[in-house]
Amino acid sequence: MAIKSLDELKKIRDASKKKVDLREKGESTDNMIELLVGMATCGIAAGARETMKALNDAIEEAGLDNVKVIQVGCMGYCHSEPTVQASIPGKEPILFGNVDVDTAKNIIDKYIISGELLDDHVLNRTFRKA
Amino acid sequence: MSNYRMHVMVCAGTGCEAAESKIIIENFKEELKLKGYDQEIQVVKTGCFGFCGQGPIVKIQPDNVFYVKVTPADVKEIIEEHIIKGRRVERLLFEDPKEKVKLEKHDNMDFYKKQYRIALRNCGFINPEDIEEYIAFEGYEALGKVLTEMQPEDVIEIVKASGLRGRGGGGFPAGVKWGFTKNSPGDEKYVICNADEGDPGAFMDRSILEGDPHSILEAMAIAGYATGANSGIVYIRAEYPLAIKRLEIAIDQAREMGLLGENIFESGFDFDIILKLGAGAFVCGEETALIHSMEGCRGEPTKKPPFPAESGYRGKPTTVNNVETLANVCPIILKGSEWFSSIGTETSKGTKVFALAGKVNNVGLVEVPMGTTLREIIFEIGGGICDGKKFKAVQTGGPSGGVITEKDLDTPIDYESIKEIGSMMGSGGMIVMDEDNDMVEIAKFYLDFTQDESCGKCTPCRIGTKRMYEILERLTNLEGDMEDLEKLVDLGNMIKDTALCGLGQTAPNPVLSTMRYFPEEYEAYAKREKTKSYRIDPEKCIGCTLCAKACPVNCITGKVKEAHVIDESACIACGACFTVCKFDAVIKP
Ligand SMILES: Cc1cc2nc3c(=O)[nH]c(=O)nc-3n(C[C@H](O)[C@H](O)[C@H](O)COP(=O)(O)O)c2cc1C
Questions:
Q1: Residue A118's closest CA among A102, A106, A126, A101?
Q2: Most buried residue, B195, B340, B478, B543, by CB count within 10 Å?
């Protein structure tokens, strides 16, 4: 398809941005919200892959460009897998447990977008880090 | 399009490809499919990351983890550990040579910390074979802006005001050059991109073409609009097959989207680009020789004036620009001349890409603001000299330049300052030498190159460089004398004054500059005092026989527990004996 104007080019740019989005988010360090998904054996067995996909879908649906989803190893809460830690710059990280597909969507729609905490899914940190 | 959650970015520059990155990419794709992750994880082939000494490089996004020296056999582990389980593969992380700690983010590495990437902005970041990825990073917006909102004069003004100077070696202001071509009468004009890159040791132009080919096509079209040309030609050496392939793909894609061809952005401006392959002669990088070569004539230079801007390809006004020069154009159009001119020094604006090579820990491509010191480049970005040896000199400007020594390491580098300390910017090759390098041999190496590459048209270069080389051979064979040193200087200065083109005018530089900084090394050869072989100190040798076993030419003899002897006439000075000796008994030449 031939591009005939700067506006058409910019449309293609915006559509193509999705393709490279992960890289841009990865490079930028400031003011990104990070969602860490526990993807060790326990997490995967409990459905963390679906959770991660649900998070990504919800982010795309809401059109958020300041959230990156990163998979991490076991966070130590195997009893409540899948677990997701949400780190918003300037706020205490919040740990969510038993995050199924619906809860994942709620994390984005309620917590990330409007700051609302979710009943029954917030885990308390039981250890201190060095 | 399915939604990927992770990108595995694998370098497919020439360096990493030579180190099997193609197989790595295939292994990733196969293994991900096998494990059922191919719909979630995308494998992306990218251009050069610049950190070639650590290649092949694999970067995982959005985690921003940078794996180095990856082999095809490592792929399974990266997938099983990092991609499936979210655990870093520690052993493949880069280890800081000074602090000895593992670093996972490239921004924490000294190699990247001081760099500022304008020309290399997209290299290692986008798939060079996908025009949409280029567009995602504002690709072709500069061309769109120029064609729909600006007059050719305005474009030339911006480039002039930015202070952008030619990166091909001469340092001539790009905007001024464009103005000359624009003002030369004629309705048929050309834009030529000089991608000959003949300096042995320089590879920034190749990396830009391989990693971000569209940025060059776009800049050429902008130059065409500014100067009134409708045809662009990339003159590229046939020895760069990957760059050629990526350019061909890029040209096809740009044509398909109407970004090259007729009536671009419906502005009435037509521009198309073709490739011309050169056979890889150093002199064909010189712009007049390059043009003759394109015309099907012998690749020989002619006198300037007339400059190509007046009478170039087919006798028509022609702009010749280097690849790296062009790579700076689009950001200047989009971000403005003030942004660009705020970077760099008084006389030299923007950044320069250097190809860092030789005895330095972090070999690779580095892009730094003009005014960065050599010490920062070699010791911070480059991580210092290999094996803890001492720095001796750095050769810049390739076969046309000279050596810079310890005392000038803190000079902020720009076109002028580097000339003052006796070398030149050239295309940005930077070869680091340590205490073991023989400066006479280094000079001989470069002269061997230039006398071989001399096109033979003018006598000073054809015969002069040959004679200089013969004198150097005589000296290094220990058959010369002190008079030879005077002859070298005389001959060198004469060639500089009388040769026809830049090749001959600069060919004596490596000899003259090493003579200036290391006269004692030349004298040792002239007085025939230089020993070329290793020797054994009989006082220190305990007769352990390690050296005799290590010697590849069997020129070390001696009984067990008795001092050994090296046959100096057979010694090839490989240093194997020196390396294995545990008693400091082997003496270097
Ligand atoms: C012997 C010789 C070799 C050269 N080789 C190259 C080269 O490989 N690439 C290049 O861009 N310029 C080379 N040049 C410089 C070109 O003549 C010309 O100045 C340059 O392409 C202009 O582009 P710029 O103003 O963008 O630097 C060479 C010059 C000489 C004298």
A1: A106
A2: B195
